Amino acid sequence: MNVVADTNVVISGLLWHGAERAVLDAARSGSIKLFTSPALLAEIEDVLKREKFVERLAAANATAHELVLGYASLATVIALEPIDPVVHDDPDDDEVLSCARAADCDVIVSGDRHLLKLVQYETIRIMTAVQFLKEL
User: For the chain, which domains are there?
Assistant: First the structure.
């Protein structure tokens, strides 16, 4: 199963235990195949550099860049294909949709309300980590 994990899922999975970590573990075990893009990796790193993650990164004994490199080695990095705007309230979310379309993904796993509100983009289902794990 081809999957794009949104930035919030990746960060939660890298820094905490829970459903988001289980999504990343499913990729580690080969149960799913994760996809990302250079733009999404840059967003992950930018978010991880925020002040609110300083203590968590220190506890993990890792830098934002190291975590991004680790995630990039877990996922397949692909080029984005331009799409018509979909999420007008948060245009960055369109990059997640673009990545999922370019990778011919089955699912986008996200905690983002704008994406979850869509429920589906073309043939790609959009769900939370908990919903996804119930179907895995």
Answer: 2-135 (3.40.50.1010)
Q: Which two tokens stand for residue 77?
A: 């990095």
Q: Tell me the whole-structure pTM to 2 decimals.
A: 0.95
Return d(Cα 15, Cα 18) in angstroms, integer. 10
Q: Distance (Å, rounded) from C-alpha 36 to C-alpha 95? A: 10
pLDDT tens digits for range 67-105 = 999 999 999 999 988 888 898 788 789 999 999 999 999
Give the side-chain half-sphere CA count within 13 A for 85.
6
Sheet containing 107-109: order of strands: 76-77, 33-36, 2-5, 107-109, 124-127, 120-121
Residue 64, amino acid: A
- For the chain, the first-to-last Cα distance in angstroms comes to 9
The owner of tokens 């999957």 is: 3
